[in-house]
């Protein structure tokens, strides 16, 4: 885990691994960033059939992010 300003980053690496081209590679890696004005982000990369695959990529807005409505009725996102 690391902190940068008001952002927090958590990295999780799988205990089990696979050897690919002579290099030991973890079966999965997860990265979560949270805090600050930006939305929280979650990324999970997995090994499948010997290849890296982006298994999940998501953003989550917390209560600290507010939306406002424009005249056309569409939500206006805060600038990041």
Give Rg in angstroms.
Answer: 18 Å
Q: From the helix content, strand content and strand pairing, which structural class follows?
A: mainly beta
- Report the sheet-strand fraction: over 45%
Arrangement of strands in the largest sheet? 1-2-5-6-7
Q: Note the total helix count.
A: 0
How are helices and strands ordered from N to C? EEEEEEEEE
The coarse silhouette is elongated
Largest sheet: 5 strands, antiparallel
**Poorly predicted parts:** 67-75
Helix-residue proportion: under 10%
The mean pLDDT is 78
Total count of strands? 9
Query: Span between N and C termini?
Result: 23 Å
Quick description:
The protein has 80 residues and is mainly beta.
Verbal overview:
The chain is mainly β and 80 residues long. 0% of the residues lie in helices and 60% in strands. The chain has strands at residues 2-4, 7-13, 17-20, 23-26, 28-34, 40-48, 51-60, 68-69, 75-76. Strands 1-2-5-6-7 form a five-stranded antiparallel sheet, with no helix packed on it. Strands 3-4 form a two-stranded antiparallel sheet. Residues 67-75 have low confidence and may be disordered.
């Amino acid at each position: 885990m690391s902190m940068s300003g008001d952002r927090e980053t958590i990295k999780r690496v799988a205990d089990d691994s696979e050897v690919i081209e002579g290099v030991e590679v973890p079966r999965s890696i997860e990265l979560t960033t949270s805090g600050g004005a930006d939305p929280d982000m979650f990324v999970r990369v997995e090994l499948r059939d010997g290849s890296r695959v982006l298994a999940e990529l998501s953003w989550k807005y917390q209560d600290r992010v507010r939306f406002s409505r424009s005249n056309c009725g569409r939500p206006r996102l805060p600038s990041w």
